[in-house]
Amino acid sequence: MRWRVTIEQPQQTPDSSGGSATTWVAVATLWAEVRPTSGGERYRAMREQGYTYYKLRLRGRKDVSITTKDRVRMGSKVWNVREVYNEDQLNRWITVIAEEGPGT
Fold first, then answer.
1. What is the pLDDT of residues 28-63, one digit of tens each?
2. 1, 3, 25, 84: least surrounded by Cβ within 10 Å?
3. Can you give the pTM of this predicted structure?
4. 3-state SS string over the chain?
C-alpha cells in the first residue's frame, strides 16, 4: 500500500434559486494499492473521449462505507467509483473499480 487516497461523498447543498448543488466532502484518507486495469475511447455527445479504469485495493474500516455514489481523489486525479467488492466478506480488504475520464 503505497498511495494515499481520499474517499469523497456527495452532499446536496441548497442554492439561492431553490435547487441544490452537489459538493464533495472528504470522509476518509486511506492507504491504497492503485493499478490501471483498462482504458479506451468512446463517443459521447458527438465527441471522442478517453477513459481509464483503475483497481484500488484498500484495507477495510468499520467507520468507512464506500458506494458507487462516491469518488476517490489521489492528488489531482479524481475517479468515480463504479464497483466495490468486499474481497473476503470480513471487511479486511476492499477492492474498488474506479473510472478516470471526462466528467469525473
1. 999 999 999 987 776 666 777 778 899 999 999 888
2. 25
3. 0.82
4. CCEEEEEEEEEEEECCCCCEEEEEEEEEEEEEEEEEEEEEEEEECCEEEEEEEEEEEEECCCCCCCCCCCEEEECCEEEEEEEEEECCCCCCEEEEEEEECCCC
Could you give the domains of the chain? Answer: 3-100 (2.40.10.270)
Q: Which residue type sits at 82?
A: R
Residue 16: partners with Cβ closer than 8 Å, 6 or more residues away:
none
Beta-ladder partners of 83: 97
Q: How many other CB atoms are found less than 10 A from the CB of residue 96?
A: 23
Spatial CA neighbour of 70 closest among 24, 12, 30: 24
Number of Cβ atoms within 10 Å of the Cβ of 30: 19
Task: Let me know: does 15 contact 23? Beta carbons within 8 Å.
Answer: no
